[in-house]
Amino acid sequence: MGKHSAEFEGTVVSIVRKHCPDLSEGAVTTRPSKGGKYLSITVTVRATSKLQLDNLYLELTALEEVLWAL
Q1: Measured between alpha carbons, how far is 69 from 60 in angstroms, rounded to an integer?
Q2: d(CA 33, CA 45)
Q3: Average pLDDT, rounded, for the chain
Q4: What is the mean pLDDT of residues 35-41?
Q5: How many CA atoms lie within 13 A of 43 on its CB side?
Q6: What is the 3-state secondary structure (H, E, C) of 4-36?
Q7: Are strands 28-32 and 2-3 parallel, antiparallel or unpaired?
Q8: Half-sphere exposure at residue 41, Cβ-oriented, CA atoms within 13 angstroms
Q9: What is the side-by-side strand order in the sheet with 38-43?
Q10: How confident is the model at residue 6, as a pLDDT?
């Protein structure tokens, strides 16, 4: 979840694709907050290792726009 901006979704998806190149188009869903200030992005991936998930998490949480990631 992060602050809603024109680039936020694309940046997140780009990072996920870097770590999960076989990401399908239907794997990404978004939902804006009630006021539209924030955007929740859900990405379903098939991870092959803990290291892959750890690296993905570290890169996502390093983004200033990301407020929190699960």
Answers
A1: 7
A2: 23
A3: 94
A4: 95
A5: 28
A6: CCCCHHHHHHHHHHHHCCCCCHHHEEEEECCCC
A7: unpaired
A8: 25
A9: 2-3, 38-43, 28-32
A10: 87
